[in-house]
Amino acid sequence: MNLGQWIGLIAIVLSLYILWQIKEVLLLMFAAVVLATTLNRLAKRFQNLGMKRGFAVLLSVALFFAAVVVFFLLIVPPFAQQFHELTYRVPQGLERFNSWLDEMKTRVPSQLVPYIPDLNSLIQQAQPFINRVLGSSFAFVSSSLEVVLKVLLVLVWTGMLLADPLAYRKVFIRLFPSFYRRRVDGILNKCEVSLGGWVTGALIAMGVVGLMSVVGLSILGVKAALALAVLAGFLNLIPNLGPTLSLVPAMAIALLDAPWKSVAVLILYFIIQQTESNFITPYVMAQQVSLLPAVTLISQLFFVTFFGFLGLFLALPLTVVAKIWVQEILIKDVLDEWGTHHSQDAEVVIVCNSPSNHDDWPEENSATSVEDTLSKED
């Protein structure tokens, strides 16, 4: 390797190192891009109705903030009341369960008594885990200011992108060689359409899950059914793990009324999850975004491993965008073209091995010379 190649290699390694160090900032920027793309598509729909650009953008942003405010108004007050009740109802339930176990020990044969769990020993064994969870909770509360600042940063970036999206798009396109800029512009168009399709499909799936949850929880008579249903629909944005996270508060609140309600909520959420994962999401996402289930799961594991919870939350839109870039650049522009050149080379080899007079062939071994020779023979 010469000096220029060494310098290029060092520059690539340093660039990758810098990108890895600022990976969280890049994820926040991508979150702003996804949010700006969604609001921009909504603004374009308003523009198609005859509104001016500025008013359409303001209306889209106002609807977004209204949805956020309604979400927190539906979620926070009922949960605060129910979880305050949990703080003194759960110990009562544990004491009742412990007395039930003691009563069972007096009725079963003595040989089976050692196999009946002791609740006090279980609590002692779980104490280190509980302390770790509480410590993580305190750490989460202490870092809440950082979370708020990141959310505000995403919102500011979103506003900047919405103000003049074409200017930022042109800056990004100019990072590529001049002969490839038109191609990059087409890829960005496909990314915008796919992200819009993903958002549409996710909203449809969220609505269906929320509707099924509120109907089922209302039939069971679980308190705060609407808040639990809204939370279940929102966490459905995180495939595979989101429904499990939404199950915990629902079972806890149902446990306040009766143990059987908690079991019934578990069965209800299992049915909803199976319906959503096997019927709703495959049909909706097949109409909007074509992603294989295995690819979705692998992408979640990859992004949560390297980028944490934010990577898990953005795993699907990141996978949608990455799929388009890989399909358009690596497959269509590189691999498909390589296959074309390879087939042309194979054709040249076949022609050269044909039983014809080799003195009639031109001296230059090029594709143009071969085509000229074939045309002369014809």
UniProtKB/TrEMBL annotation:
Membrane topology category: Multi-pass membrane protein
Region span, Disordered: 356-378
Superkingdom, natural source: Bacteria
Cellular compartment(s): Membrane
Keyword Hydrolase: no
Membrane-spanning segments: 6-35, 55-76, 147-167, 187-209, 215-238, 292-316
One GO CC term, this protein: membrane
GO biological process: transmembrane transport
InterPro entries reported in the protein's UniProt record: AI-2E-like
Keyword match Transmembrane: yes
Pfam families named in the record: AI-2E_transport
Principal location class: membrane
Keyword field: Membrane, Transmembrane, Transmembrane helix
Position of the signal peptide: none
Family: Belongs to the autoinducer-2 exporter (AI-2E) (TC 2.A.86) family.
PANTHER family: TRANSMEMBRANE PROTEIN, TRANSPORT PROTEIN YDBI-RELATED
Name of this chain's protein: Permease
Organism, scientific name: Anabaenopsis circularis NIES-21
Origin organism lineage: Bacteria, Bacillati, Cyanobacteriota, Cyanophyceae, Nostocales
